[in-house]
């Protein structure tokens, strides 16, 4: 799929990688980017980056996407305003090993709910013209990490969903893919130490937090920059077991 002229919804698009992704998609010719994020999240964007909203091609839709009615309202508003949606990027995610409800509501439920809305709107089985759903996952959705067992479980769940959707493409015309970044310097990463479980040993903390390579938030979106979005499924194809990772080593 060529992103030129496409209408894109991105959740968590005010945050580290989401914001970089929105900028990259606009630069690469997307017609319109709808950013779904929490009210107040725009305040965290520094003024030098506010250029994204100087264009009519991007709009902020404030709301908590883990609330189904809020998510649907904003999704419907984009469809009504733009006439269609072509690409949905499920990017919003948190690490909170102490609040399972919050974690699952956002990292799993909101991704599945938003995907269902996207499939219902874009799916050829519903008269739509097909499209693309990108689930922003993590290496931790593919491997095990003793530092973050609950977060990892949510990411594994979405890898499972992505894999299951592979063979529904013929019916829906909607490709469902995941990208799996490594550790990236964003707020999510910066707040990590305060969001861990109390049973995590210092040895594990030290090992993971000091030994794992870390990349910048903009390199976390390199999948979108280096390749046209049509090739995103080459970044992580659910049928292959060897995703590409990008690190600043
Ligand atoms: N940073 C990393 O190391 C890393 C690594 C691999 C994968 N990821 C994944 O990448 C995605 C983006 O992460 P990031 O590091 O850019 O995080 P971030 O914290 O910088 O940004 C996340 C955004 O999601 C928004 N958000 C949180 N709760 C929300 C809600 N209920 N409704 C709407 N928006 C909400 C936040 O306001 C924020 O703007 C996440 O899914 C994360 O799991 C991150």
UniProtKB/TrEMBL annotation:
Which stretches does UniProt call biased (Basic and acidic residues)?
A: 238-249
Check the record and name the InterPro entries matching this protein.
NAD(P)-bd_dom_sf, SDR_fam
Annotated coiled-coil positions are none
> What is a single molecular function from GO for this protein?
oxidoreductase activity
Q: Does the keyword Cytoplasm apply?
A: no
Keywords annotated in UniProt:
Oxidoreductase
Region listing for Disordered, in residue ranges: 215-249
- An example of a Pfam family matching this protein is adh_short
Q: Which Gene3D superfamilies match?
A: NAD(P)-binding Rossmann-like Domain (3.40.50.720)
Q: Which domain of life is it from?
A: Eukaryota
Q: Does the keyword Oxidoreductase apply?
A: yes
Matching PANTHER family? 15-HYDROXYPROSTAGLANDIN DEHYDROGENASE [NAD(+)], ALCOHOL DEHYDROGENASE-RELATED
Protein family per UniProt: Belongs to the short-chain dehydrogenases/reductases (SDR) family.
- This chain belongs to the protein called Alcohol dehydrogenase
């Amino acid at each position: 799929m060529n992103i030129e002229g496409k209408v894109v919804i991105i959740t968590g698009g005010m945050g580290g990688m989401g914001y970089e992704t929105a900028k990259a998609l606009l630069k690469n010719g997307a017609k319109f980017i709808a950013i779904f994020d929490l009210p107040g999240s725009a305040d965290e964007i520094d003024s030098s980056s506010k250029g994204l909203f100087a264009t009519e091609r991007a709009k902020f839709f404030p709301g908590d996407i883990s609330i189904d009615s809020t998510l649907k309202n904003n999704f419907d508003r984009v469809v009504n305003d733009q006439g269609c949606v072509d690409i949905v990027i499920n990017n919003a995610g948190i690490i909170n090993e102490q609040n399972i409800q919050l974690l699952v509501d956002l990292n799993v439920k909101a991704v599945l709910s938003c995907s269902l809305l996207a499939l219902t709107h874009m799916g050829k089985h519903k008269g739509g013209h097909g499209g693309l759903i990108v689930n922003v996952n993590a290496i931790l959705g593919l491997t095990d990490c003793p530092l973050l067992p609950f977060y990892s479980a949510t990411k594994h769940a979405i890898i499972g969903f992505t894999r299951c959707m592979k063979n529904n493409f013929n019916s829906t015309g909607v490709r469902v893919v995941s990208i799996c970044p490594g550790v990236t310097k964003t707020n999510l990463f910066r707040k990590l130490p305060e969001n861990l479980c109390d049973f995590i040993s210092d040895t594990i903390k030290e090992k993971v937090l000091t030994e794992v390579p870390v990349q910048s938030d903009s390199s976390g979106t390199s999948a979108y920059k280096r390749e046209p979005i049509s090739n995103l499924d080459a970044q992580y194809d659910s049928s292959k077991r060897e995703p590409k990772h990008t690190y600043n080593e």
